[in-house]
Design a protein that fits this description.
This protein is an alpha/beta fold. It is about 45% helix and about 15% strand. It has a seven-stranded parallel beta sheet with strand order 10-11-12-13-14-15-16. It has a five-stranded mixed beta sheet with strand order 2-4-7-6-5, sandwiched between helices. Helix 6 (about 90-95) crosses helix 7 and helix 8 (about 120-125) runs antiparallel to helix 9. The two termini are about 40 Å apart. It binds one DNA strand of 29 nucleotides through helix 2, helix 4, helix 7, helix 9 and helix 14.
Length: about 575
DNA sequence: GCCGTTTTCGGCCCGACTGTTTTCAGTCG
């Protein structure tokens, strides 16, 4: 039974929901949810870890949950879950996800009104049957009907890709920070941490008078409904279904608030523990000494970390993946920044499925401060992408050389390919052709659903080819739409290390592949990482920032990333790689 | 259910907002 990390995480998430409806101890419920979160973010395949007997090394996974994972992987079933499912109808768990319905109400609807599905809940609400239940007035019923509508709209997937949420958040923030009386503004939450998908948007601004800011926020054109409207916090749902929370606060409390609302929850819990050890209680407003001394305000996040005796922790790594311990030891690495990037090693032109010429892409890259780029159009195996055969590849090389000369040293333009790793494992170009290229990316686009052994073997073949420099978007995942290929990443990483081949963080927010947990492990093994835009148009070159966020989440410093290397070092590496 | 250079037992975050139960419970983040 081939359950993925994500499927196992979702099952434990659901177990948490069921236990909550049953009214179980909240800490036991949270234990399942924390385990689910750790599993979702864990950088290794649970099937492998289970065989090694190392499940309990996963944060928040103890003996009991480890045994449940083993049972799931061995039998494809979980007795504990089956028992719960026999007690709590599946529809009641769905009802729990309606806005305005928590465990108490879900249980009440079920046991007092016999409601066991969203459809029954909606019918009961419309028929006025809910009003008879305790605590249910007109507004509560209306809210539940709205909640059902909202849930229907985003039923397929409740999370929004970072590539959608970040620009939306920036647009709203720029409206708010332009208002009179507003000082600072920031996007907090999981967007600030660069997570690939976002639950909702958290915005913070400083202002002495919150009311006018809240009024503008809740009456913007793209507001579908106002979920809450108070003096310090308001929430809206946008027409596209995205929920946005705004908090307005005084400037002197900026540091604690920004930290609090940036999360992650797990990071913050540890910070509060450290504060308590120092006799301080930490919340979004201040550090408050337990001995009754006046509260300590932190206007900057840096002040807060300093007060706690910690090195500053960049938001992207606040996931409780060891950053607190590193900060205590003063060992937070200097994370890569966009300013470190001098090259883009993967992009397309009109020769295959790109929208701009080689010259136009070169000019655009120069305008963005790149020192060198590699033109890597698709190979002929990618027929729908108008992939190049050998003849066209060599003709393209002549044009690349000409453009490179025309750019007159402003930027170097190199010639490569994004070569198809075919479904049968063979590569699209023979070695003598690859030898003529400056840089070779090999990628999976087809056969992603092949069995683990088969698809892994294809990637290993590509890695072992002496001319292949980089595996592009290694897992072939699409954020939200598609899980990646069932690759044996342990084997892939070991072979990449052995052959000196780089692995990509594809910066396109639809991909973000490798994702942070995998990229971190690869880099720790000493595998070079490339962060490339895979741009098919000029504007896609600006997607680099999503790759940077992902790389920072992976704890990468500049030297671990090929795109930061000067051209000489890059050419040395390409030339010497497999020798 | 997990966790632990104070602990293998006893903790585990708590404040804001809303609606309705006129003093608070439920939900959310």
């Amino acid at each position: 039974m081939a359950l993925s990390n994500r499927e196992i995480a979702e099952l434990f998430e659901r177990i948490g929901d069921m236990l909550e409806i049953k009214g179980e101890n909240i800490h036991r419920i949270l234990a399942y949810r924390r385990a689910a979160e750790s599993i979702r973010e864990f950088g290794r395949d649970l099937r492998v870890v289970s065989k090694e007997g190392g499940l309990e090394a996963i944060p928040n996974v103890g003996k009991v949950i480890a045994e449940k994972i083993d049972e799931l992987l061995e039998t494809g079933q979980l007795t504990f879950y089956e028992k719960l499912a026999a007690e709590v109808p599946a529809g009641v768990v769905d009802i729990l996800h309606v806005n305005g319905v928590g465990p108490k109400k879900a249980k009440m609807f079920w046991q007092d009104a016999g409601i066991t599905s969203l459809e029954e809940l909606e019918a009961a609400a419309r028929a006025g049957k809910l009003n008879n239940l305790p605590g249910m007035g007109e507004k509560s019923v209306a809210r539940i009907l709205e909640g059902i509508e909202s849930l229907k709209r985003r039923s397929a997937e409740t999370r929004t890709p970072l590539g959608v949420a970040l620009p939306a958040a920036e647009a709203i923030l720029s409206v708010l920070t332009a208002l009179p009386g507003v000082g600072r503004g920031a996007i907090a939450g999981s967007i600030r941490r660069g997570k690939p998908t976002i639950g909702d948007v958290d915005l913070l601004v400083t202002a002495d008078d919150a009311a006018p800011v809240m009024d503008v926020f809740t009456s913007m054109d793209n507001v579908a409904r106002v979920l809450g409207h108070g003096p310090t916090k308001s929430s809206i749902e946008l027409l596209n279904g995205l929920q946005v929370d705004l908090r307005v606060l005084p400037a002197e409390r900026w540091g604690t608030a920004l930290n609090y609302f940036s999360g992650s929850k797990e990071h913050n819990v540890k910070l509060r523990r450290i504060a308590l050890d120092k006799g301080l209680s930490l919340n979004e407003w201040a550090l408050t000494p337990e001995n009754g001394d006046p509260e300590i305000l932190c206007a900057e996040e840096e002040d807060l970390y300093a007060r706690l005796g910690l090195q500053y922790v960049p938001p992207e790594i606040r996931e409780d993946w060891g950053e607190i311990e590193a900060a205590q030891a003063g060992k937070i690495p200097a994370l890569l920044t966009e300013a470190d990037i001098v090259a883009d090693l993967h992009m397309h032109t009109t020769w295959s499925d790109g929208r701009f010429s080689i010259r136009e892409m070169a000019e655009a890259a120069y305008a963005r401060g790149r020192k060198y780029i590699v033109i890597t159009d698709h190979s002929h195996g990618a027929t729908i992408a108008n992939g190049l055969n050998v003849e066209r590849l060599l003709a393209q090389q002549a044009e690349v050389r000409r453009v490179d000369a025309e750019m007159n040293g402003k930027i170097r333009v190199l010639h490569g390919t994004e070569m198809e790793i075919r479904a049968d494992g063979s590569l699209d170009f023979p070695d003598e052709i690859l030898a003529q290229l400056d840089f070779v990316v090999a990628s999976l686009h087809v056969g992603l659903r092949q069995p683990r052994e088969q698809v892994t073997q294809r990637v290993l073949n590509a890695l072992r080819n002496p001319h292949v420099d980089l595996i592009g978007h290694p897992r072939g995942q699409l954020i939200i739409e598609r899980e990646g290929a069932d690759l044996d990443l342990d084997a892939v990483f070991a072979t990449a290390k052995e052959t000196g081949t780089a692995l990509e963080i594809n910066a396109n927010p639809a991909r973000l592949d490798l994702e942070a947990s995998y990229a971190r492990r690869a880099a720790e093994m000493g595998i070079p990482i490339c962060i490339d835009t895979d741009a098919h148009s000029i504007d896609q070159m600006d997607l680099l920032r999503f790759g940077i966020l992902t790389a920072r989440r992976a704890w990468l410093s500049a030297d671990q990333v090929v795109n930061t290397w000067p051209l000489d070092k890059f050419l040395d590496w390409v030339g010497n790689k497999h020798v």
